[in-house]
Amino acid sequence: MTARRPFPRSVASLLFGTVLAAMATVVATAAPLSAQQTSAGEERSAPEFRAGQWGAQFTATSGFAGAGVLRFRSPQTAWLLDATAAVSNTNSSAGSVASQVGDHSAASVATRLGLRRYGAPRGVIRSFYGGGVQASVTRTSSEVRQVIGLPSVKQTASSYKVGAFGELGASYFVTSQLALGARGVGTVGYDRTKLESQRSPTLETSSDGMFLQLGSVQLQVTLFF
Fold this sequence. Notes:
By secondary structure, this protein is mainly beta. The chain has one domain. 13% of the residues lie in helices and 63% in strands. The protein has one helix and nine strands, in the order E-H-E-E-E-E-E-E-E-E. It has one helix at residues 11-39, and strands spanning 2-4, 54-60, 65-72, 77-94, 100-118, 125-146, 153-173, 178-198, 203-224. The chain has an eight-stranded antiparallel barrel with strand order 2-3-4-5-6-7-8-9. It is elongated, with a radius of gyration of 23 Å. 17% of the residues are buried.
């Protein structure tokens, strides 16, 4: 039977909860303002962008966090550059005659460069889609220590991916400079993985291949300048 000791929540999970709380607070704060504007006969709508305008984007899920910038080249399209990162660390033990204690850690970083196109405003909402190139690096490490008997075994795996990405999402404009939204991202490309097992003797293996990945929905907070 395996018992897992509690460990601190990851930074990404904390940020994910913070983004959710911030979205709820902003929407609750914006509701009275929207009601006032409606009662005054003013219909709110998403803003029109301009060439040369900038935006700052913050992204989070329960697994990672990220940030990026937008640079509009026209009222509908913008260059997008962003990066995401994730770090996790766990510790587990298995109760048996030869007890085992394991440490497992993982870290990854990814960056994207591409173009995003916004659709026409529909009230306070603007949809968007885009695509471009992406590169990522992931490194995982695990060590199993035998309390009785066998020596410890440590394994590390490094994965390098390059390819293309596509995104589809929408933004709800609380004000002309603040938008809350969500997007889905999919990637396809080339993956090279290297696995190293540090025991006697040391073993190294590597593999190459193509990958197709459909990511989870990401929450976004975007500021426009």
